[in-house]
Amino acid sequence: MPTNSFETFHLSWIPEKKQLTKPCYLALANALEADILSGKLAAGTRLPPQRELADYLDINFTTVTRAYTLCRERKLIYGEVGRGTYVSPLPGTTRPGNTGNVIELGIVNGFDHLRAPVIEATAQLLQKSYLNQLYSYAEPAGHLHQRAAGAHWMTQMDVRTDSEHTAIFSGAQNAISTALLSLFRIGDKMAVDEYTYSNLIGTAKLSHIQLIPVKGDESGMLPDHLDFLCQKHRIRGLFLMPNCANPTTRTLTEQRKDALADTAQKFGLTVIEDDNTGASVPLANSYHSLFSRLPEQTLYICNATMALCSGLRVAFAAFPEKFRPQLLEALFHLNIKTSSLDAEIMTELILSGKAKKILEQKRFLAEERNKIFDRIFPQAPAPGSKGAFFRWLPLQNPCKSGMDMERDLRDMGVNVYHAYRFTVNRNPGHFFRFAISSPETNEALAQGLDTVRRYLEQ
Q1: What is the pLDDT of residues 139-192, one digit of tens each?
Q2: CATH T-level assignment (fold) for domain 116-355
Q3: What is the residue extent of each domain of the chain?
Q4: Neighbouring C-beta atoms of residue 360, cutoff 10 Å
Q5: Where are the alpha helices (DSSP H) in 234-353?
Q6: What b/e sequence results for 268-280 when a residue is b if at least 16 CB atoms lie within 10 Å of its CB, and e otherwise?
Q7: Taking CA 212 as the corner, what is the angle to CA 167 and CA 386, rounded to the nearest 5 degrees?
Q8: β-strands 431-434, 391-394: how paired?
Q9: Which helix H or strand E contains 391, and what residues bound it?
Q10: Residue 319 in contact with residue 163, Cβ under 8 Å?
Q11: What is the largest CA-CA distance in the chain?
């Protein structure tokens, strides 16, 4: 029995004891997550101190600590030194201190207000005679004509493949998750940029894959440091965003790709190439993918489809024959299949030529947005592409934590993301990443960026 009586003592969160099955820390973390996501625990709620909760539940203090740590990694809660642990604000919810009219500069929505061509493609799809054949479990990797369209689309990114070595996933994140679970084992190590895609970090934790940060410069990851770390840590995988990397916008030169490919080949690394090419830069004949350099070691994920319409959860991926069994089996177990309707809409956009026109329009808009950003933050690093959908801004000696600064700016009506979301280092450094393509108008972007500028000048 608990040492103390809580009959007259208020706890802000009281989980059901009978639901705490083994492992207890995981059950406790899942219970906390469920109560946060359901709205039972509102953003900003101060959670019970760990020792008091452990005493009430009659469990070990370290069990509660592990549960809180797991929820902190899931970005569900955050701690403030000397004050306690609180429920984090969740994306898309109304936050304290504002009216709900938040300027979104955190989540990257690639000009999603330009939906007319997607709606037209959807209407045309509904008139097709074979529509009823899409409503089945058939073809888990995508129907043949959809995969063929994806293979054709990827040729402009210098990815030469065919429909038999193309699969359709529910977005690039789904392709990454499937790859980590199928091509790697628990405890494997993967090299990544010092600052990398935040959802990769979360998925790697869930998959128990250790991410090893590799130093970089303006041209991206340093091959010599990758070589050194491969010898030191026996790394098995390499994750790269060669074009307009998230969050830094750094773009690998062809020479840097050559050097990284040589190192990956030397150590037999499994390469995940998360390519943002179609969204960020006009392609040229001089462009060559990592997939073209290491076709037998690389899973190529075509992230350009996200730029067409992020609500269409479709991403094409090219893979070598040796990846086929485990990759497609994992795709089936995780998804059964990607939505055939979404895949068919994407196919219609590609074959009609509308996809190319959408990207051209969005690149033009992105160039305008980058000019606005450079006007307000002239000291910011130059983007790897003039058509980048997001930018980053290093911060000089901030006096608050990243979570505190995010919270301050949300209270001022702007949502931004801090460096801690994008690094596996213990010391994440300080910068903001701005999703400049998310506000619906240039005026809203300028207003949001000016709010951040005034905040940083305080």
Answers
A1: 888 899 999 999 999 988 889 999 999 999 998 999 999 999 999 999 999 999
A2: Aspartate Aminotransferase; domain 2 (3.40.640)
A3: 17-87, 103-112+358-457, 116-355
A4: 11
A5: 254-267, 277-280, 290-293, 304-308, 324-335, 340-352
A6: ebbbbbbbbbbbb
A7: 65
A8: antiparallel
A9: strand 391-394
A10: no
A11: 73
Helix (H) or strand (E) holding 369: helix 354-376
The Cα–Cα gap between 103 and 323 comes to 42
At 214, list the tokens.
Answer: 């590799």
**381 preceded by a cis bond (ω within 30 of 0):** no
Sequence letter at residue 263: T
Residue count (the chain): 458
At 359, is the pLDDT very low, low, confident or very high (cuts 50, 70, 90)?
confident
CA–CA dist 262, 268 (Å, integer): 10
- CA 124/CA 40 separation, integer angstroms: 43
Query: How confident is the model over 241-298, as pLDDT tens digits?
Result: 999 899 999 999 999 999 999 999 999 999 999 987 655 444 555 678 999 999 999 9
Place of tokens 């590799």: 214
What are the φ/ψ torsions at residue 214 (nearest 5 degrees)?
-115, 135
Task: Report residue 412 as tokens.
Answer: 């001022």
Nearest one of 280, 339, 286, 325 to 143, comparing CA atoms: 339
Find tokens 């993918």 and name the residue.
Answer: 289
- Report the top-level CATH class of 103-112+358-457: alpha beta
**Which residues, including other chains, have CB under 8 Å from residue 7's CB and lie 6 or more apart?**
none
Cα–Cα dist 16/1, whole Å: 15
How many other C-beta atoms lie within 10 A of the C-beta of residue 440?
14
Token digits of residue 280: 């960020």
List beta partners, residue 224: none
Q: Identify the CATH assignment for 17-87 out of 3.40.190.10, 3.50.50.60, 3.40.50.300, 1.10.10.10.
A: 1.10.10.10
52, 195, 454 from 246: Cα distances, Å: 41, 8, 25
